[in-house]
Amino acid sequence: MSEVSKLLLITFSMIFTENYVLVQFLGICPFLGVSKEFDSCLGMSGAVIFVMTLASAVTWLVYTFLMVPLGLEYMSTIIFILVIAALVQFVEIVLKKFIRPLYESLGVYLPLITTNCAVLAVTLLNIEEHYNFIESVVDGLTAGIGFGLALILFCGVRKALERAKPPKPFEGLPITLVAAALTSMTFMGFVGIADRLFG
Amino acid sequence: MKEKWKILTNGIFKENPVLILLLGCCSVLAVSVTVSGALGMGIALTFVLVCSNVVISLLRKLIPDKVRIPCYIVVIATFVTLVQMVVEAFLPELNKALGVFLALIVVYCIVLGRAEMFASKHGVVDSFLDGLGMGIGYTIVILGIALVRELIGNGTILDQRIIPEGYQIGIISQTPGGFMMFGFAIALLVFCLGKKGKKFDPRIGCDGACAGCARSCENRIQEAPKANAEEVKA
Amino acid sequence: MKNSLFREMIKPVLVLTLICLGAAALLGAVNKVTAPIIEENALQKAQETRRQVLPGAGNFTEIDCDKEALDITGAFREENGLGYVISSSHKGYGGQVVVTLGLSPEGKILGISVDVSTETTGVGSKAGREDYLSRYIGLSGSADQVDTISGATYSSAAVKSGVQAALAAFEAIK
User: Fold this and answer.
1) Contact yes or no for C143/C163 (Cβ under 8 A)
2) ipTM score over 0.85, yes or no
3) Would the CB atoms of B77 and C117 count as touching at under 8 Å?
4) pTM of the prediction?
């Protein structure tokens, strides 16, 4: 498989067939917690895409040029979470100082990202899949885009849910989860397309 | 004695981390496909919770307020890595079933949340019991969901065939089934509490999920992470 | 003043460093114990799979070849000339599907083993079942005549690509 088609496959599967939220159950918490208002959906998506791409790049470099030579591969979980935590803080400081408008739109969501399991997962899976640097960055970027797509789509679903009248015990979170189930079912349909495109 | 018992059962019923506090939903949804995987995850999480609670409680007077969050993360990540290595060496099958979710215990707000809300303020014995209770509460719920999902979705329980082949509903063991079963479980709880005349709104406190909770936790622990960027890097 | 400098700046850094050191020491110690076991497990499992697909096989020697270009993960020759074992890994529905093929010296498929454990339960597992895999036994050269299974299209396609890659690789290295 050529490099370009591999990158395309990563892109397609991360956004559709292996969508982090709707297929792989990663980052469910912000997905359910932040998807109420459209503006916060956009902000959160932007922050996640930004941090995921950056974290993929940084952790790949740290892993390849620091941990492998030192034989510390077994410590990847602990080192990656610290790198991500530090990175998020660093991004926050830099944005606050230099890119004020971006900080104002993403700032609130940045502290939440350290505990977003999708970010840690993407960095760990990059290593597990033996991706090279470019593949890792593309993987992080497209995983973030997939997350954003799911979040924004689901925001619309929730708007419609507000007008619905479910049975009493289902009010609130339970019916939201059932709606999430139906949304994720639609994403299962993409599998056949990937099959045809890349099979 | 009665008080200690109360701390233990707190995590199992009154403040059940999954159904009441609604923490760590990702792992609940993802790992509840098979009973054996759920049991493994429950035990792993309980171990991490108990160990991190005990260690953080032991060190609570030593850890300066400013760097407590990074310290907690290091302690938790250490135990998670420990579990990862042991599981990979001695239970390779379980390691495959849990995949990346074993490593992701690090970021479950349930562990960090207990460290911040309980272990940093209580003695070693109490923290131990709290971790144990929370772990058991998590395990019971995830086992219950896994039992239903494996039975309906794959027709088996612990790989023993119960429903004949061809009669299972596969979608229940896939992603949509995970969301749906979790929704049903919470609805069932609301319904049962309603019968008893109690009202439980699953949105309260947590805004329905960890992100909301992380925010309310973050409010309490707000300055800490900000001031500590340098230390983390150091 | 001095005291507060210590409490404000030095102590936090010191404590965090100490905790990190303690953590690293503990993990290093445990890794010393578990790493050899993990390695041993992997070797043993690979050896077992190879013996399973090539009945009666003894020891194997790895064949030196360009695995990347051949799209395989490993090629082995049985030391007594019973045949070859070639393994490959392709993307299925939710993860990698690892196919291990046992081939006679002439290139006929004698045995096949498929690891679909990372696939979605219920969907992918069909592609790992005996009745599907047995359709590959006895083929040589190409596996075009074996169809994919509905309900496990993606996983069975991954199995098929694995077999095709291994058969092609056999032609190149025999």
Assistant:
1) yes
2) yes
3) no
4) 0.81
In DSSP terms, C91 is beta-bridged to C96
DSSP state at residue A74: G
Domain that holds residue B112: 14-229
* Closest CA in chain C for residue B175: C120
**Residue matched to tokens 């030579």:** A69
Residue B56 lies in a domain: yes
Interface test with B, best of C121, C125, C153, C154 (most B CBs within 10 A): C121
Q: Measure the CA–CA gap between C12 and B233, rounded to whole angstroms.
A: 13
- With CA atoms as reference, report the closest residue to C114 among C62, C170, C166: C166
Distance (Å) from the C-alpha of residue B203 to the closest C-alpha of chain C? 31
Answer yes or no: is pLDDT of B208 > 50: no
What does the pLDDT read at residue C114?
A: 83
pLDDT of residue C26: 92
Give the pLDDT band of residue A168 (cuts 50, 70, 90): confident
Q: Which residues of A touch C (CB under 8 A)?
A: 9, 17-18, 23-24, 74-75, 78, 191-192, 194-195, 199
B230 vs B70: CA distance, rounded Å: 11
Coil vs helix vs strand at B156: strand
Each domain of chain C, given as residue ranges in start order, spans: 54-173
Is B4 contained in some domain? no
Name the residue ranges covered by the structural domains of chain A: 26-183
| CA-wise closest residue to B30 among B97, B103, B112, B113 | B97
Short-list A51, A43, A144, A45, CA closest to A94 = A51
pLDDT in tens, A50-99: 999 999 999 999 999 999 999 888 888 899 998 998 898 888 888 888 88
